[in-house]
Amino acid sequence: xxxxxxxxxxxxxxxxxxxxxxxxxxxxxxxxxxxxxxxxxxxxxxxxxxxxxxxxxxxxxxxxxxxxxxxxxxxxxxxxxxxxxxxxxxxxxxxxxxxxxxxxxxxxxxxxxxxxxxxxxxxxxxxxxxxxxxxxxxxxxxxxxxxxxxxxxxxxxxxxxxxxxxxxxxxxxxxxxxxxxxxxxxxxxxxxxxxxxxxxxxxxxxxxxxxxxxxxxxxxxxxxxxxxxxxxxxxxxxxxxxxxxxxxxxxxxxxxxxxxxxxxxxxxxxxxxxxxxxxxxxxxxxxxxxxxxxxxxxxxxxxxxxxxxxxxxxxxxxxxxxxxxxxxxxxxxxxxxxxxxxxxxxxxxxxxxxxxxxxxxxxxxxxxxxxxxxxxxxxxxxxxxxxxxx
Length: 390
Description:
Elements: H1 14-31, H2 37-53, H3 59-75, H4 88-98, H5 103-126, H6 133-145, E1 153-156, H7 163-174, E2 178-182, H8 190-193, H9 206-214, E3 220-224, H10 233-247, E4 255-257, E5 262-264, E6 270-275, H11 283-288, E7 290-293, H12 299-318, E8 325-327, H13 332-336, H14 346-364, E9 371-373, H15 378-381
Parallel strand pairs: 1-6, 1-7, 2-3, 3-6, 8-9
Antiparallel strand pairs: 4-5
Helix pairs in contact: 1-2, 1-3, 2-3, 4-5, 4-7, 12-14
Organism: Candidatus Dojkabacteria bacterium
Protein name: AAA family ATPase
InterPro entries: AAA+_ATPase, ATPase_AAA_core, Lon_lid, Lon_Prtase, P-loop_NTPase
């Protein structure tokens, strides 16, 4: 009797075919992204290993972390840069249109732009006539975006004085993308540097995530509240050391994120820091920062800011027109100090928002179409209990 023949080439189960299709899509994602060559080879090796593992039933356990890793490395904007706007007059006009005063901050930035302009001129003079035009264009673009000689400004002042908003205006004036990293009560240095892929809940650090959000390697990154890092001595020292590597132009061209396990070039990013005071910042880090102290505004400055900057902004967001609200000149001192002196302007913006909100309510309920704010009636719109939670 002839026995059953053995099929030496059995048809693979449908599940394995599906898994191979998923891996082919993953491989396509790697090969279509502008990854550095050695990082691409590393990722391709991971996918090929998964193909071998798929045959032995442990595919799902291995697939998720590798797919997550490939997703992150392909999101990093390798080789993507923006070109800085180095027109000093344009930058000055942009800053003046969004912020009143702060001349010391504006002057520092304009000096930096002037220096970059001189470097561009020198680059033009030294460029050989036989240079490849495409290479020269790329070099010039990277020179404009390079922060290797950029001042690392640190704005120091009380809360609500406009440290974050001036950083946003600087980014807009230069034509850079803006991203913010909050360092207040940072849980650990791994939040900055990333968690190794061997750890539970591994993911990149905040710096890498900032580049992914900006979609370029040359954004303006705001390191907000660097003085509010955890008060634990050991943790604070670790975070300050990590910040030193991130901010120092002599070190950050090969910054290593522990999750990516591949150097990131941060030398084209521009960094600005903010702090309420300098007490919690290490001496080594302070040595790399250019401290710009932002003093509190006086009443005259606040009046200009309220009239020319804050009120138009609040009016636009509310949908009201200039004809519907009229401020008497002698009412502004009461608007500026509804509860006494306040160093910043955040409370002033809240006060104006509350006032405009009340007038909008009156217009919608048919109590009138235009209103005058005077010293006699301003308390109808700015009650005495207005405060932080208004």
